[in-house]
Specification:
One of its GO terms (cellular component) is lipid droplet. Keywords: Oxidoreductase. Pfam families: adh_short (PF00106). GO terms for molecular function: oxidoreductase activity, acting on the CH-OH group of donors, NAD or NADP as acceptor. It is built from five helices and five strands, in the order H-E-H-E-E-H-E-H-H-E. The protein has helices spanning about 1-20, 40-60, 100-110, 125-130, 135-145, and strands spanning about 20-25, 65-75, 85, 115-120, 150-155. Helix 2 links the parallel strand 1 and strand 2 (about 65-75). The longest helix has 23 residues, at about 40-60.
């Protein structure tokens, strides 16, 4: 979170003075939906998304319509941060190539796109989460399938494993 706020604080005053600029916040698809085993990471990304949305709305409300915002929420990017992660459905949720993501971000900035979710299948998350599934249904599905990590396999193996085979992340 500190990186996002520091960057905005550094560049926003000059942008406001000129009513011109473009703020890009790189968050994560984990900022759109909670993921079992990644509570701390999701919380920081939810914060990044909310912060960028709020700043964008504040700029519009104060008449600073020359300052644009783009909020980027990619799935996993092959940067080494998530080495060992595999998706359950690689054709639907592939591990993204950094060059591909960079090109998409540049295009989003040039077209004043407010949200960029990658891959495109991520655009379904808000609809599925808020309209079709109640969190209790998601938990029931986890219990039935035995999958502890939403859409992931072998991704949080270095995190603390509780005796009942659940993963405790944020509170350890």
């Amino acid at each position: 979170m500190e990186v996002n706020t520091m960057t905005y604080k550094a560049f926003l005053p000059a942008m406001i003075a000129n009513n011109h600029g473009h703020l890009v916040s790189i968050a994560s698809s984990a900022g759109l939906i909670g993921v079992n085993g990644l509570a701390d990471y999701c919380a920081s990304k939810f914060g990044a998304v909310g912060f960028a949305e709020s700043v964008g709305l504040e700029l519009l409300a104060t008449g600073k319509d020359g300052i644009k915002t783009t909020i980027v929420c990619p799935y996993f990017i092959n940067t080494g941060m998530f080495d060992g992660c595999q998706t359950k459905w690689p054709s639907l949720l592939p591990i993204l190539n950094p060059d591909y993501v960079a090109k998409k971000i540049i295009h989003a900035v040039l077209t004043d796109q407010v949200y960029l979710l990658l891959p495109k299948s991520i655009y379904l998350i808000p609809t599925i989460q808020y309209r079709l599934f109640h969190p209790q249904i998601c938990l029931y599905t986890v219990w039935i399938t035995g999958h502890k990590y939403y859409l992931l396999t072998d991704c949080t193996k270095n995190r603390y494993q509780h005796k009942d085979n659940t993963c405790i992340v944020s509170i350890v």
